[in-house]
Design goal:
The chain has 305 residues and is α/β, with parallel strands linked by helices. Helix content is 37%, strand content 11%. The protein has 13 helices and six strands. It starts with a strand and ends in a 9-residue tail after the last helix.
């Protein structure tokens, strides 16, 4: 079937798409879920610049070439969302369609340095905390079980911690996890077996590679400025989540000005970890859109449903 590539975010794994992979395959698509650079079974280069959006997109073109895939639909969550939007701008000939899950298309303003924006928006303070190599690594790697149990939680009341994680004032607090429980209860969206898989993967790679994605903010901005006047012309989908406290639905307002063929989906009772928290709702949105996109282009889909 038509190729669909799934790109995860921070701090995750191809495994974050485990509920989407079989559903998309059953709907007739060829699914490729990647470990992004710095994660799991992927390469983990030491140079920070290797994790810039420009380098990552170049890598993905090589990946598609090696598999003989001329075009694919790209679906990304969190940092994976940034990748797919950039692919649609810089390599539109390789993108059949593009979808951002939680992550909107951010238009680059050549006149405004991104760090000035991060300084002004309290919820993005964690990204500034991540800038100094070694600091966040030490905190997040100290107790991997605690790290993932604090970070990957659902938005329901029963899954919320007594002291919810805040991405604001992280530098002032002295760490992202400061103020969170030392022994958090199990997460409803990350059962024990799945938690152990993440722990196993990060014991192998550590957090240096994943954090290096954040250490290319200015480099990414400079690259984005070279395409500041371009628009996304391929069919696109934006899925927002009503309870995502960082990638809020409001950040996607006005995307239609730059993303000309945009379809929207929304899941209100959902936080940041959409694939894990509301898999059935997300799958329904994705499959409906994918079938519409590919039927319009007359690509044969052999559904197993």
């Amino acid at each position: 079937g038509p190729a669909v590539c799934l790109f995860h975010g921070f701090p995750e794994s191809w495994f974050s798409w485990r509920y989407q992979i079989p559903a998309l395959v059953d709907a007739g698509f060829r699914v490729l879920a990647l470990d992004m650079k710095g994660y799991g079974e992927s390469t983990v280069p030491s140079d920070i610049e290797e994790y810039s959006q420009e380098e990552i997109c170049k890598d993905l073109v090589v990946f598609l070439n090696r598999l003989g895939i001329s075009q694919a639909t790209l679906i990304g969550h969190d940092w994976g969302g940034s990748v797919v939007w950039n692919m649609s701008l810089f390599y539109p000939e390789r993108v059949r369609a593009v979808a951002g899950v939680n992550t909107p298309f951010f238009h680059v303003n050549p006149l405004i340095n991104p760090f000035s924006i991060l300084e002004k928006v309290p919820i993005f303070d964690y990204q500034l905390y991540f800038q100094e190599p070694g600091v966040a690594e030490a905190e997040l790697e100290a107790n991997l079980e605690r790290t993932f149990r604090v970070l990957i939680r659902g938005s329901s009341k029963q899954d919320m911690l007594g002291s919810p994680l805040s991405t604001a004032n992280v530098r002032q607090r002295g760490g992202l996890l400061v103020g969170s429980p030392e022994n958090p209860p199990p997460s409803h969206i990350l059962p024990e077996a799945e938690l152990q898989y993440y722990i196993q993967q990060f014991k192998k790679t550590g957090f240096r590679g994943p954090l290096n994605w954040y250490r290319n903010i200015e480099k990414n901005w400079c690259w984005g400025c070279s395409a500041a006047e371009r628009k996304v012309l391929v069919p696109a989908l934006m899925v927002t989540a009503g309870k995502d406290s960082v990638l809020t639905p409001s950040l996607s307002a006005g995307m239609e000005k730059r993303v000309l063929n945009l379809t929207r989906g929304h899941i209100e009772a959902c936080g940041h970890w959409t694939q894990l928290e509301r898999p059935a709702e997300l799958n329904e949105i994705l499959i409906k859109w994918l079938k519409e996109v590919h039927q319009k282009s007359s690509i044969q889909i052999n559904s197993n449903l």
